[in-house]
Each structure stands twice: as structure tokens, then as C-alpha cells.
């Protein structure tokens, strides 16, 4: 592991929370911490994490991040990649590459790409052959 956590600012904080909560649910990722302005004046953010409960991915309410970023989330299997893609599209994301093999990365790279409502490239990937 080379990163402890990552985050970026969004213009529509509540909309982003709704999108990411829906899109990441199939991957077992949910909000595990939220910082309110009362606790940290001028700052509002939420941290998403998996089963361990550590917030690894953060959204902040400071305004739009430009240029857009690319964030990739690990999926346990290919079915989870497909479920992520369907959930993200249903939550308002736009297709940026449907689930499938990306052999130019490696033979078992199975990923799906969605643009979030603010245009960030969000991906889920599974590296195993199942």
C-alpha cells in the first residue's frame, strides 16, 4: 500500500454523497465518518471505508476539483465490478467504459468506468480471473 487515504472537493456535497453512497455500496464501501462544520469550522467532509472501518476515500465540500480526477476502487470479483457500474449509472453517473477485460493492462484486468455527476472518472477493478 502506498497511500493512506485520498480525497477531493466537490461542488454539490449532498449530491456527491448520494452518488458515491449508491455507487460504492456494491463494493462494500460506505460512509464511516463525517466531519461537520461545527467540529472543524469552515470544513465539511465524509470519509468512505470498507469492512475495516477506516476512511480511505474522502469527499470535501470546499467546491469543485479541477481538473477532474481518476479514482479506482478494488472489487472482490467481476460481479462486484458489474454491480458497481449498474449502481453508479442508476445514481446519475455516465458511462465511460462498461465492464469488461482491459487486456492492454493485463489479461485479468476487469474494470468499469463511470463519470460521476461532476465529471470525475470513477472505476472499479478486479484483477482475478473470476
UniProtKB/TrEMBL annotation:
Source taxon at top rank: Bacteria
InterPro entries in the cross-refs: Glyas_Bleomycin-R_OHBP_Dase, Glyas_Fos-R_dOase_dom, VOC_core
Query: What PROSITE patterns does the entry give?
Result: VOC
> Where would I find the VOC domain in this sequence?
2-127
User: Known Pfam families for this protein?
Assistant: Glyoxalase
What is this protein identified as? Answer: Glyoxalase
Amino acid at each position: 500500500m502506498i497511500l493512506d487515504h485520498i480525497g477531493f472537493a466537490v461542488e454539490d456535497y449532498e449530491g456527491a454523497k448520494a452518488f458515491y453512497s449508491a455507487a460504492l455500496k456494491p463494493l462494500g464501501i460506505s460512509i464511516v465518518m463525517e466531519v461537520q462544520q461545527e467540529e472543524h469550522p469552515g470544513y465539511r467532509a465524509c470519509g468512505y471505508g470498507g469492512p475495516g472501518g477506516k476512511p480511505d476515500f474522502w469527499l470535501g465540500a470546499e467546491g469543485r476539483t479541477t481538473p477532474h480526477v481518476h479514482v479506482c476502487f478494488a472489487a472482490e470479483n467481476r460481479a462486484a465490478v458489474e454491480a458497481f457500474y449498474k449502481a453508479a449509472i442508476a445514481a446519475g453517473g455516465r458511462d465511460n467504459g462498461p465492464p469488461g477485460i482491459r487486456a492492454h493492462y493485463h489479461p485479468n484486468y476487469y474494470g468499469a468506468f463511470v463519470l460521476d455527476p461532476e465529471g470525475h472518472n470513477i472505476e472499479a477493478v478486479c484483477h482475478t480471473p473470476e
